[in-house]
Amino acid sequence: MFEGYDPGTFYDELVAPDGTPRPEAAAMHEILAGMPLDVFEERRQLADLSYLVQGITFTVYSDGRGTERLFPFDLVPRIIPRHEWDVVEKGLAQRVTALNLYLQDIYGKQRILKDKIIPRHLVQSCKHFRREMVGLNVPRDIYVHIAGIDLVRDSRTGEYLVLEDNARSPSGISYVLENRLVMRRTFARAFEVSEVMPVDHYPNELGKILRSLSPRTGDRPVVVLLTPGLYNSAYFEHCFLAQEMGIELVEGRDLVVVDDVVYMKTIRGLTRVDVIYRRVDDDFLDPLAFRADSLVGVPGLMNAYRAGNIALANAVGTGVADDKAIYAFVPDFIRYYLGEEPILKNVDTFLCSRPDHLSYVLEHLNELVVKAVGESGGYGMLMGPSADKKTTEEFRERLKADPRNYIAQPVIPLSRCPSFDPATGTISPRHIDLRPYCLYDGEKVTIVPGGLTRVALQKGSLVVNSSQGGGSKDTWVLRGNDGGEA
Amino acid sequence: MNRYKLVHVTQFSYDGIVTESYNELRLRPRHDEGQSCLSFRVTTNPVAKAVGHQDYFGNWVHQFHILPEHKKLRVETEAVILMHPVKEPPVSTLTLAELDAMRDDLADEHFDWLAASGYCPFVPEILELAADAERECDGTIHGLVQTASSLIHKRFRYQQGATHVHSSVEDCLETKAGVCQDFSHLLLAMLRSRGIPARYVSGYLVPRQGNDEKAAMERVIGGLASHAWVQAFIPDTGWIGLDPTSGEYVDAQHIRVAYGRDYGDVPPVRGVYKGHAGQSLAVDVHVRPAVDDDGAEQLLETSATPPPDPEEEIHAQQQQQQQQ
Q: What is the CATH number of the domain that holds B74?
């Protein structure tokens, strides 16, 4: 399968520049290299089928057909040696801790604004800065319980860089868990020879944190997962996580607020709810406090939150931490709140709200990636080098009209990982990123080893978002320092 | 006497049965150096307990909910308010050039009062109006804000029904007509686009009483019912009131209830409920001196009844009364 494989000029995750497998990948490389194409193809189809019968799909919004699609799964895993992961893990823990301290501060004393580490106007102009949260005490002072931090490896330096933070409702963990299950079935032997660190304790860890947030002591806390419903792109994940954690999956209409206490409507009457793992955006969470036209929210929820009778994970207003313009300041947050140097670096970022940066960006549009600050999932983005003239000019106008809404970054030559190309029936290198999922309990950050590796399945493409034609891979962190040896 | 009793009655009538009604009121007058809120009471029918808190802008919010089926909702608030004599601040002589030099500091301190907002976008017509006002004024900040306010009073016609409660300045710019809510939004957009911090004030305007009551009523267009005006920030003076609807000075007749970036931050009554029913809204505001000079009570009132909302939805929003 690896015949004629050329790692090329990009950093290859599994293959060294001389074409030999990296030590941590040696065992898997041998298995794949010795596998006939028809056997591989058969396993691939079995894997796809298992996703299909389980209904593991996602919805593409901008596609007029509103179709549900399978999230393509690539059978070649990404393998991370333990010593590398240890550094990544420390860096993520540091970042998530700093993001929480920043949110506590912004919705509290605002020391960081008074000390002018970050301009006040940049924070207050965030679409997701919630004035309702200023002065509101959240349970145990935790804002971001679940964060998905997107990492890329820069081919030039081999270093991991943080590409963006997702501190609202990061999705995708269900793929991490499902991918592992499918891989275990498909490549059972590989798991015998490589000691892969497990990921299946995630729902348990998340459940523990959610229960610990209960504002009531004594009784067994009632935790629910609030979903916008069937038509949400991540509905499968909502069902999956609720089931794994053994909690109720509810929609807004299943909950009611009475005298600032949240209840769930059940066939036996009202049951008090203590903690909501909400997968509904702030805007739609409470039609009384936010968008009045929301049909998926719970009216009065913010009143219950203010009264301290309900915990929400993540807290309301965490979008003021993962705004792409705020991102540029996260290394400063780490220095300011923790007095430490950031372990994981940022990608250089131009803030279009700064006139000097804006003029540079406008002059170099065809070299840069431009992103809308409040969007995610690859929407509202311009890939300068590959965009056509018309799109580039459209973005130029948008940038001039609303500079605060955009940032720009140089194109990072993302590392690549061997991936199966069905068109040629061979394994070829494809660009990848990594989204680890971080859980914060107020004291420590827990990260299931690895995370979601997304792969740009189209040859040469750098866009890995599922909504933009990306796929995913199982991500292995090996227990030993090199391949297979524990 | 500058002691008033304000009774504000909001009445919703639904075509059918509604349930799970959640509402927020921003009707309690502010309590500060310029005015004292001596008492405030909320009564609803069906009966509910209103709970108060202060929002980000320091406004009092009272929220209540009614879960059982109902076809009508009546909300009555009663406030007794003591207006302190207005101390006229010295007229600032700060120039617009001096303002420009302070731009960065103001942007940092007054971001909310300088940014364009949903109701107050910086559309080209706004920038033109602001430029006109600047041309006509004496080059001071104080001069510009006064000129801008009277320019709106001169160029726009007061007309109820020309716009609606959710209109942004664009509707008003198109029809050249509107009510106090629109005029306030126009002035906010003009001042902010020129770098002058400005905020929306929701409140009441007490009619000046003279011998000819009818004339007095006409003079305070848009008075009595919920009113809106603007405060502009002048760095060496502080906040000064501007009423582009009356074109007159803001004084102890202006009872301030809430500050916001625009109407969207301070609707006097806002709510949602479940039900398929259409609705109609009626609002009555009574203002009277709490102790009359002659010992005889005078009662003034007004009412407004917009047409019922034809839209049907399972979740519905309480209709809102435009500030006129």
A: 2.60.40.2250
